[in-house]
Design brief:
Layout: E1 2-7, E2 10-15, H1 26-31, H2 33-51, E3 58-66, E4 72-81, E5 102-107, H3 110-123, H4 128-131, E6 132-140, E7 143-151, H5 158-165, E8 170-173, H6 176-185, E9 187-190, H7 194-197
Length: 201
Amino acid sequence: MRFQKLTDNKLKIFLSNEELPNSGNFDDFISNSSRARNTFLEILDRAYDEVGFNAQDHKIKIDAVALKDGSFVFTVTKLVKIRGNKKAVKPKKIPKEKNSNYAIYKFESFDDFCNFCTYIKKSAAIDINAVSSKCELYLYSNDFYLSMTNINQDYEKIGVFYSSITEFSRFFSSKDLFASVLKEKGKLFIKHNAIKNCKTP
């Protein structure tokens, strides 16, 4: 188990398959709300001791992502501060693994995309050239879509990349049909390696 405190209000929890209760069966784990609640409260207590992330008396949101190696990344976000006891945690369903040929992510604004690019460039943990042979940014129906082609699922940091990009966007599609729609009806905003070529401070 490893913790990464992103901000005072956001925490990442890296959990191996063996560390998840009920032999790594996520569906069985979250179906038992009492066990899930108690487990996450214990994990959050440990996060407070190790990295100083204090979620007590806060309503929280938890997003879960399954990595290729069978481990999990939970992103905990503190919401509006509340009074009273800790509230039950309701993890989101883990999305299914993306198609290896296409992955399209939707950003609500260009600023969100720029913030993601800045994060990737400053982290120095991810070689963006090793992630995908081609990624382009499109503007379509007032939203920005990052279309990635030929994703290298064998890249050792691919799980870190997936975990990072979902902090700033949401996975939208793995269908080549929507990629075609973007090419035909969308506006190509940044071509070639859009992440690398985005001009950020």
